[in-house]
Specification:
Blueprint: E1 7-11, H1 16-27, E2 31-36, H2 39-53, E3 58-62, H3 68-81, E4 87-90, H4 105-126, E5 139-143, H5 156-176, E6 182-188, H6 197-200, H7 203-211, H8 221-232, E7 243-246
Helix pairs in contact: 1-2, 1-8, 3-4, 4-5
The protein binds NADP nicotinamide-adenine-dinucleotide phosphate.
NADP nicotinamide-adenine-dinucleotide phosphate (NAP) binds next to α1.
Family: Belongs to the short-chain dehydrogenases/reductases (SDR) family.
GO molecular function, one term: glucose 1-dehydrogenase (NAD+) activity
Keywords: Oxidoreductase
């Protein structure tokens, strides 16, 4: 019960890694606020979590985290209903495949917005709620990617955004350390989620992923959620500005 009595905001919590993280944290005592654009997905994820933890341990808020108006509304909702939060997991993100030649300026900007600008906006507007008066464990975990460390085919925009996010994390860790807030990032390798599902339906593609991974398999959302929960928890009390690579050994192959 590492998160007993703590409130966690998790963006992109309606599916994949975000949903698994919300489940993990709720199971360990957190009240989790699930954020995403599609209300139906959030309702479904929240109801599954509430059933498992045998009490009402969720809340949902529909917002597009690339839009400052939406993020301000989220901040207002938190101010009125909770007044404070302990944990922020910036997980919303995604990409489309395109070479530099094919990528339009609009696509480039969209991928920066959803993977990087959204984290700036949510951090900026929610940091006042991780206040010093609460004391104790307060932390932010940003979900970056293996692609922020190495080149990947047809994702120049995504690689740039995630590399930016890893360094934004370090900048925030430096700025917020005097206020007692730790900030770290987690960089998953290839994980089976709705984001990667279309690719994984191609057997040759999946085989290539497995061959490139030391552990010879694709990861599961729970395996990333476990590391996110560790980084968020008091167990990681001396860790800030770090990036935790959880890639099944992709980078060492
Ligand atoms: P996913 O299942 O597609 O989850 C992404 C979530 O983000 C969705 O629930 C989506 O819900 C939400 N989202 C997208 N745009 C949003 C926006 N503008 N505002 C609010 N919510 C938004 O994919 P995932 O694989 O779990 O991805 C989670 C994170 O892990 C992402 O940052 C991704 O880049 C990163 N990651 C994933 C992998 C992988 O292999 N799966 C590898 C490395 C890094 P709505 O569409 O309803 O808003």
């Amino acid at each position: 019960m590492r998160f007993e009595g703590q409130i966690a905001v998790i963006t992109g919590a309606g599916s994949g890694i975000g949903e698994a993280t919300a489940q993990r944290m709720a199971k360990e005592g957190a009240r989790v606020i699930l954020v995403g654009r599609t209300k139906e997905k959030l309702v479904q994820a929240a109801s599954a979590i509430d059933t498992r933890c045998e009490r009402k341990c969720t809340d949902i808020f529909s917002a597009d985290v690339t839009k400052e108006e939406d993020v301000k509304e989220l901040a207002e909702f938190i101010k009125e209903k909770y007044g404070q939060i302990h944990l922020l997991i910036n997980n919303a993100g995604g990409s489309v495949n395109s070479t530099i030649k094919e990528t339009t300026l609009e696509q480039w900007k969209h991928v920066q917005d959803v993977n990087l600008t959204s984290v700036f906006l949510v951090t900026k507007h929610l940091i006042p709620f991780l206040t010093e008066e609460i004391g104790g464990n307060r932390s932010i975990v940003n979900i970056a990617s293996l692609s922020g460390h190495k080149a990947g085919a047809q994702i120049p925009h995504y690689s740039a955004a995630k590399a930016g996010l890893i360094n934004f994390t370090k900048a925030m860790a430096f700025e917020l350390a005097p206020h007692g807030v730790r900030v770290n990032s987690v960089s998953p390798g290839f994980v089976e989620t709705p984001l990667t599902q279309p690719g994984l339906e191609n057997e040759r593609f999946t085989k290539a992923i497995e061959q490139n991974t030391a552990l010879k398999r694709v990861g599961k959302p729970d395996e990333i959620a476990n590391v996110i929960a560790f980084a968020a928890s008091e167990e990681a009390s001396y860790m800030t500005g770090s990036d935790l690579l959880v890639d099944g050994g992709w980078l060492i192959v």
